[in-house]
Amino acid sequence: MTNPHHFIPNTDSDRQDLLKVIGAKSVEDLLKGIPSELRFTKDLDVGSPMSELEINQHFRKLMKNSRQTQQTLSFLGAGVYDHMCPAAVNQLTLRGEFLTTYTPYQPEMAQGTLQALFEFQTHITELFGMDVAMASHYDGSTALAEAVIMALRIQSDRKRVLISQGVHPEYIEVAKTYLANLGAELTIIPLAQDGRTSVDALKSLLKEDVASVIVQTPNVMGCVEEQDVIADLTKKSGALYIGNVAEPLSLGVLNPPGYYGADIVTGEGQSFGIPAAFGGPFLGLFTAKQDYVRQMPGRLCGETIDAKGRRSYTLTLSTREQHIRREKATSNICSNQNLMMLWSTIWLSMIGKKGFSELAELNLAKSEYAKEALQATGKAALRYSKTPTFNEFVVDIKGDAAEFVKKAAAQGIAPGVPLSRFFANDKTGLLVCVTETKMREDIDALATLVKNLG
Amino acid sequence: MEFMNKSTSNGVLLEEPTLFERSRPGARGTSIPTCDVPKINASAKFGNAFRKNTARLPEVSETEVVRHFSRLSTWNYAVDFGIFPLGSCTMKYNPRHNEEIARSGEISNAHPYDPEEWTQGHMAIIHDLTEDLKKILGMEDVSLQACAGAHGEYTGLAMIAAYERSKNRNRRTILAPDTSHGTNPASAAMAGFRIQQIVTGEDGVLHPDTVRAAMTDDVVCLMITNPNTIGFFEKNVKEFAEILRAKDAFLYIDGANLNAIMGIVRPGDFGCDVIQLNLHKTFSTPHGGGGPGSGPVGVSSRLVPFLPIPRVEKAGNKFVMQYNKPQTIGRVKAFFGNYGVMVRAWAYIKSLGSEGLRAVSENAIINANYLKAKLSNVLAVPLQNANLHEIIFNDNATKVGGLDTTKIAKRLIDYGMHPPTMHFPLCVKNAIMVEPTETEDRTELDRFVNAVKEIVSSGDTGAAPVRVFREKIDEAKAARELKLKYNFNR
Fold first, then answer.
1. Are both B124 and B50 inside the same structural domain?
2. Which of A247, A269, A244, A248 lies closest to A257, judged by CA?
3. Is A92 within 8 Å of B288 when comparing Cβ atoms?
4. Mean pLDDT lowest for which of A45-59, A88-102, B9-23, B378-392?
5. Among A148, A291, B197, B272, which lies 20 to 30 A Cα-Cα from A167?
């Protein structure tokens, strides 16, 4: 008398007892509602059950060429950043009370999740310089796409969206997908020679039909955008200004879009201690001005009191959401990246106010050192040498960057993202990211590699 | 610290202010590495763009952070404590081995732009999970790009929109029964469609004549959940598929309730064209208090060309990310979906194998029917039919004495368990929707049964919940006053 698997407690004898109470002979009696001609009678063919040990052995084999197994060195960024993470973050997020609970729709038994959400919303509004932050979206790309839709809803008589070429190219693709069925048009604002959004191009594109202007800073080339100029032009035209921050650690040294009057600011929270995990799950950050709070997608947590007058928290303004408003909802989203929200909240709490600026300064210093080291090889030229960057920059190398990356990978180094990945005609550009996780000797090793292979 | 002095503890349930109130200038939660390269003056570097007003993150020690979040955690109820019988949510046990694998260095440290040679193992997992889901669903192909069920739903509908464009048509109406989930109409609106509601029969399932009567030339899709949100199998589903196919329209299945049918019936075999699942339901990945999810989308051959990019494909003896799909709807997310969630689901399927998955569904059905048998003389069962994995009760038998659905639910919290789904589906008045899942043992099922029996027999309609860290929360005040962040001037 055994249970069919350790995830399923009922033993054969339990099962018989339960069936007896139900008044059924076998489980087949309970499947009578399914027409017999539709029944599946074969084996599912997904393999035999495996023990934890066997899965581990299989997994290690699959991972034999992974960056972890090979102890590689990486200078990849482009929307996914390698940052330090205090040990307590991972361990606290393993607590079953957080990990295995549901959306806090029953606030009386979910105050832990709710207070963490309230603190998270505070952190993000502080960092972005904005009034309101939502409980998190799927990731940066979907947050931005929904910001674009929200701006179109606010500016219902305007149908054009201007998006800078400096926004992460995969984010632009997602926005395109989302807009395909909504009758709005997406126009790209090109980058100027200095790697920043072309102000001249923006001026000529800003017509009366523009609902929103989207600019990312630092942008996909690593360049810090002229937010004051862009925000000013956008506001004067009557369009909404949407800022996007794909590397929010930069906000330790750079002004957030909120300081320039942004209407909506989105971003990716992966930098706040969340594992790269081959691209997700990440953390979509979404903030807006107070005036637009009722137009925001997704969940919001608010402070209130309980029956005894004690400070408490609950999800609020749910009349915007799909389970109440259905087709008139501000979005179809019915989750948040709650565990990742918790991850980032704990990370931000541990890094703290001073630590956050210091960590940002450390990224800046390492990245500037790498610029010098790479240029000194004579094999790599800084492309936008006059424009300030944070922890990422573009160098042009001699020859094809993608080929160079291939050769480097064979030596266990990922020297950067070849820009041909995003822009087919850009053969020589290499986007190099240097965070606090790279020691001076790592950067020197990269320079040696460039010198030898470039 | 006024907040803390009011009540320092409630037994071992400790009060805890926000971390901002604990903040003291100079306190550190961790050490920042020493700078081993020349320092840069950020203010000089960035000029006007330099940030002078530092964000007011808390300044606290590591001990305080650990205690803070540990204390907060004790205010939550979770599957790790006991039954979580939320109908349609499939709150099953989250195996720890899945978690360990997903958090391994191999998975955690993989960058999406790593050279292809380094990511063969990750692409193998995505490919393997895709193949397994194709077999479980009986669908032609599956995409793992979507980050949640609702996102998968949007992805599926966007593919239908793209199909329509490819045929130079523009049909905009989607039929959906009154049992449907709120995301269905919301996703339809985002994909440019409108929902026309059709009525479920008195036996709790949809009837072919209802569908036939609603089939105007503008109808492009019928969107149903099967098993439906009442826990019944839509037995006429194959006929729906035929009605739709005759008009080159689509049968969309919301796969939220897949947990009831694995190895028993496959959506692809009953004519499904699109189905979205939730890895955090059927495939045991943790809800994490509201996410992250992952919403695989299965499609029939008509829709394969429109699947989102990228696709993991096998080229000779290696895997590649394929982007060259001329008819694709494009990307629905940056990078490759919620990979960390996929890894957990992959490990779950490996652990159970074919027989185990079928046993999951069988035991989910048995546990649900056991609750029905034990409670059908305590609570009313408004719709009589063959239940699969979930049961709908309502308050018809108890509300005369003042015990309405909300009261029963809130009182259950005092009994140390999460209430079922309430007031859903909308077609049943004051519904109480119970889904125990297969991971509950009989003692735990009986704990729930006994709690419900005691609540009903006591007839106590007093304030609820009261045996909790916080009693009834004033939700109206939260919406009226809108305090959405900490007030540093309080």
1. no
2. A244
3. no
4. B9-23
5. A291
Please name the residues in contact with A36: beta carbons below 8 A apart, sequence gap of 6 or more.
none
Taking 70 as the pLDDT cut, the residues of chain B under it are: 1-11
Q: Model-level pTM?
A: 0.97
Residue B23's domain comprises: 2-73
- Domain for residue B21, yes or no? yes
Do A63 and B343 contact (CB within 8 A), yes or no? no
* B412 sits in which H/E element: helix B405-414
What's the CA gap between B183 and A333, in Å, rounded? 7
CA B314 to chain centre: 30
- Measured between CA atoms, how close is B331 to chain A, in angstroms? 5
The answer on B250 and B318 residing in a single domain is yes
Cβ contacts of B354 on chain A, cutoff 8 Å = 43-48
Q: Are A191 and A166 in contact (CB under 8 A)?
A: yes
Q: Residue B32 carries which side chain, given as an amino acid letter?
A: I
B-contacting residues of A 192-221, CB under 8 Å?
none
Top residue of A2, A7, A82 to mutate, by most chain B CBs within 10 Å, is A7
Which residues of chain B are within 8 Å of residue A168 when distances are taken between CB atoms? 334
Task: Tell me which residue of B177, B184, B180 sits closest to B208, measured CA to CA.
Answer: B177
Cα→Cα distances A378→A382, A401, A415, B32, Å: 11, 15, 16, 33
pLDDT of residue A321: 76
Q: Does B13 touch chain A (CB under 8 A)?
A: no
Closest CA to A235 of A220, A255, A221, A215: A215
Q: Which domain holds residue A405?
A: 73-85+352-453
Q: In whole angstroms, give the CA distance from residue A216 to residue A268.
A: 11
> Is B484 an interface residue toward A (CB < 8 Å)?
yes
Residue A80 lies in a domain: yes
Contact, B179 vs B229, CB < 8 A?
yes
CATH of the domain at A117: 3.40.640.10
Domain boundary among A321, A346, A371: A346
Q: Which 394-413 residues of chain A touch chain B by CB within 8 A?
A: 405-406, 409-410
Residue A91 one-letter amino acid: Q
With respect to residue B412, please indicate whether it lies within any of the assigned structural domains: no
Peptide bond into B227 cis (omega under 30): yes
Read off the pLDDT of residues B82-98 as tens digits, 9 standing for 90 and up.
999 999 899 999 999 99
What is the full DSSP assignment across A36-50?
A: GGGB--S---S----
Same domain as A275, residue A381: no
- Distance between A350 CA and the closest CA of chain B, angstroms: 4
pLDDT of residue B176: 94
Model-level ipTM above the cut of 0.85:
yes
User: Which of left, alpha, beta for B203 (phi over 0: left; psi -120 to 50: alpha)?
Assistant: alpha
DSSP secondary structure of B207-266: -HHHHHHH--TTEEEEEEESS-TTS---TTHHHHHHHHHTTT-EEEEEGGGGGGTTTTB-
Please tell me the distance from the alpha carbon of residue A151 to that of residue A253, in angstroms, as a whole number.
28
Are B265 and A323 a contacting pair at CB < 8 A?
Answer: no
- Please provide residue B489's backbone torsions phi and psi, each rounded to the nearest 5 degrees: -100, 10
Report the pLDDT value the prediction gives residue B5, as an integer from 0 to 100: 47
Nearest chain A alpha carbon to B112: A278
Q: The dihedral of CA B159, B160, B164, B170: what is its sign?
A: negative
In a domain, B22, yes or no: yes
Helices (H) and strands (E) counted in chain A, each on its own, are 13, 15
Domain count, chain A: 2
